[in-house]
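task queued by scheduler; priority normal; single chain, no ligands, no partner chains; default sampling; output format set to structure tokens
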Amino acid sequence: MSKLRLAIVGAGPAGIYAADIILKAERNVDVSIDLFERLPAAYGLVRYGVAPDHPRIKGIITALREVLDSGGIRLFGNVNFGTDITLDDLKRHYNAVIFATGAIRDADLNIPGIDLP
């Protein structure tokens, strides 16, 4: 059985679920996945952007943690794509790369009065 090395940039829900789908898919190759996350911990906005009074949404972390704990996935936190690791680095060490970075900043909605108190 051949070996596929996969890098996923972004360890939020999209990156973790991409890893989960790939690991569960029928395949003729052995897969190892490395997740690279800019923040110190995984889960993206589910961890950092959901208010504590939304426990059902926060509960998604349990499902995401199960994927990370299932084996076949390594998580590297505090890694900034473009400075700590580049696309050339990833191409050199992996067979494939998935970008699941999410939004780096808020989108400007350009709504009149949005800045009103």
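post-processing summary
- Residues 13-24 form the longest helix (12 residues).
- Helices lie at 13-24, 44-48, 55-58, 60-69, 87-93.
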